[in-house]
Amino acid sequence: MKPGKQLQGVQAFYALLIGQLISVIGSGMTRFGLGVWVLAETKDTTAFTTMMFFAVFPAGLSALFTGPFIDRWDRRKLFIGANLVASLGILAMAILYFIGSLTLWHLYVAMSINGIASAFISPAMQSSARLLVPKERLHRASGLSQLLRPMEAILAPGLAGFIVGTFGLEVVFIIDIISFVINILILSMIQIPRPAQTAERSGRMKFWAELSEGFKYIKERPAFVTLISLFTLTLFLLPGMGYSLITPLVLSFETEKTLGLILAAYGVGSILGGVFLASRRENLRRMNSILAALVVAGLATSLMGLWENPWTIGLGVFLTGLSFVFVTGLNQIIWQVKSAPEMQGRLFAIMGTLAVGGQSLGILFAGPLASRVFQPMLEPGGALADSVGMLIGVGAGRGMAFMFILLGLNVLGMALVSWLNPSVRLLEDQIPDYEEKKIPLKGTPS
Description:
Largest sheet: none
CATH architecture of the largest domain: Up-down Bundle
Helix content: over 70%
Number of helices: 18
CATH superfamily of the largest domain: MFS general substrate transporter like domains
Distance between the termini: 22 Å
CATH class of the largest domain: Mainly Alpha
Radius of gyration: 22 Å
Order of helices and strands: HHHHHHHHHHHHHHHHHH
CATH topology of the largest domain: Growth Hormone, Chain: A
Number of strands: 0
Strand content: under 5%
Structural class: mainly alpha
Number of domains: 2
């Protein structure tokens, strides 16, 4: 397809979004199917969580180093290359599974490769939006982008569960590979312009110098330092310490079927939040909305710990999904609008690394705190059995429940303190919107 006939601008963004949606649903189905396979083969929860670790942590660690490449390289080719690498990992696992030779270490290596590839895709997707979508439509673009993961969370487990139970894991592998092929075909039909200053650069990339430019860019703008700190701390508290404990909390008194419905509530809330965000106009006060969403998320998290009731936990999960779309989506828009497009690959990569780092650290703290500190205090006869235990109960899972209450109160307090601090509440007023110079696309009149 000639450049002049390729999809450009908003049309290219929507095509990019559709391709990624197909791909993440396929990948989500594979993760679900592999999780079932690991638990069936090993009966070991640690093997399952180790698989998830290798799916997440390599992506966060390598994201720090992807930014300079994203800002330098042709992003369409980068998307295609990253998807090809990810698909090769899936293809290798599929072949090993078909011949009966798939082992855990094969799976860990393949999931790490997939995670490293995704470390290119996510920040490239975020930074490309500013190049394809007019500033006044970024709210809609961000809202639609936020729908990818919740749609995966709702569709992938249900589809994969049916397919694995009816046809087997091999069919899930085939569907995932087909989803990669479709995404790559869609990517071949779009054109993503290069930022003006990036297009004007010449010479060999100086990796460490360009990476350090990203850190320097953030450091020179205190509002960005504040924003990235707030975002990282939020991810440490909720997706890290909080969301990682929902599964054991629910399973302490309910069945796996109920757990599945509760986790789906997060996706439903996220979709509704994404649709609402996409419909909002540009005049939305972003920091005010982020802090208001954190208040809702804090209250919802505390609600999950008050009663041993699937309905209240489901409501809390739903409200958390709904509110977190605003936290992540509006945070993304601030960076897109306020920073130079030729820096955004590095900036989103740095933010992604810190976000995954905060979340991973929260996961590491959550398990030991729940099992060794809070649960013993809320066993019958424990240190808090006659005080906190009188309000929320004692026994299995109530230590985690108390952690949810405390986590929610911490998020609520963080939001209120930020609201009272003008340097945080008025953060977006401290940095003017970035206005870049435009260069004509090939095949278009100048």
